[in-house]
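I can't quite decide. Please look over this sequence plus structure tokens:

:::
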Amino acid sequence: MYDAWFSKPISVATGVSGDIRNLTNARQAFDLLNDHWRDGGSDKHRSAKRACQQALNGSVSADVARDAFIDAAREARILVE
């Protein structure tokens, strides 16, 4: 497995205080989706986890995972745009 680097970082607000994190690869996105997601279980959340896992395995490009993660983050209202 490798980290599957994104072409451009994704900024998200996390935690109670809304700390800004800049995610640069599918590993970071997958870890956030898996361990620290407040709205888990939606279709977009599951799609993003699947896309990140596939990117980490080399099955899809990192930017496919990036796009799926953005959709899930937008739905969860944590995407910083």
